[in-house]
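Below is a typical protein record.
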Amino acid sequence: MSCWVIGVDGGGTKTQAVIVNEKGQIKGRAVADSSNIQAVGEDQLAIVFKSLARDLSSQAGIEISDIDHIYAGLAGAARPADQKRIRETIEKLNITKTFTIDTDAMAALAGAFSGKPGMIVISGTGAICFGKDDQGNVHRCGGWGYLLGDEGSGFYLGQQAIIAALKAFDGRGEHTELLDRIVEFYNLDAINLIISPIYSGQIDRTRIASLAPVVFELARKGDQVAKNIIDTAGNELGKIIAATTKAMSKKDKPVRVALIGSVFKQRDLLLPHMEKQALTVAKSVEFIDPECEPSLGSALLGLQTEGIGLTHELINTLKSSC
C-alpha cells in the first residue's frame, strides 16, 4: 500500500520541503517563504503550506487528497500555544490526512543522523544542543535566547565584539581592531554612537550576529581580543556538548556531533576548544556534517509516524538523494 509523506523544514527566511513515498524515494522538492508563525502569522502560513502541498503533489503525480502525512519541523513552534495556532491553521486547509507539528531542531536532529541516535549543535544567530539517546529520548541543552544564553552563537560573537570595542574606547579594555571595524561595519562616525541604534532596535540581534565573520577574520589576523572571544565561544559550545553527553548517559563513551549553522562555516578556530570541553565527559568526540538536510529528517519522522520502519534499505534510498 502506498504512503505519501511531506517533510517540511520551516525557518525564519525560507521553508524547504520534500515528498517521499513508503520506500523512501524522493518524488519532489519545493521551497517557499518563511513559515515561522511568530513572524508571518496564520494567513501567510496557510499560503505557504497550500503552495507546498500543491507543488509537491504535482511533482509526485498524485492528488493533494493522496497525501497521507505532513511532518512539519518549524521555527517558532516550540511553545504549545504556537503549536496550537499552527495546528488550527493547517487543519482548515484539508491538504493532508494527518500531520505533525514539531520544532525545526527535531527535523535537523533526525536529518543529521538519518533518524538514528546522535547529537547536534546548532550555532547561527542563536545556539543550542540536542541529543537523541539509544532509547529514543531527546535531551536539550542551551538555547535560552539572546538575553539569557545562546553562548557561542553568532549573536554572542557580535555582542562580545561590541562590548570589547566599547571597553577599548573607554580605556578600560585592551586595544583591538574590532573598534574601527565595527564603526566601519555599521557605518558609524564613532563607536559610542552605536548605543542608540542598538537600544532602539535599529541594529537588531540579527544584525549583531552578522558581525561574527569580522570577529573570525580579526582572530585569524592575530587580534588577541577577537581571538579570546572565539576561544570563549568554542569553550561554551563544548560545555553544552558535555552537558548533553551526560544527559544521554554517554559519559566516558564516544560521541558523534553534527555541526549545523552559519557559525560553523569557520569551525576550525572553534573545534579545539569544543573538543577540550567535550572530552571532560566523553571518551572521544567526532565532529561531522549532517547526513541529510532537515526536510528529509522531517520526512523520516513522518514515515515513522505512519508506522513505516526505517530499514537500512529505506534510509539508503533516501540518503542517495541527499
Remarks:
- The domain at 5-112+292-319 is CATH 3.30.420.40 (Nucleotidyltransferase; domain 5).
- The chain has two domains: 5-112+292-319, 142-288.
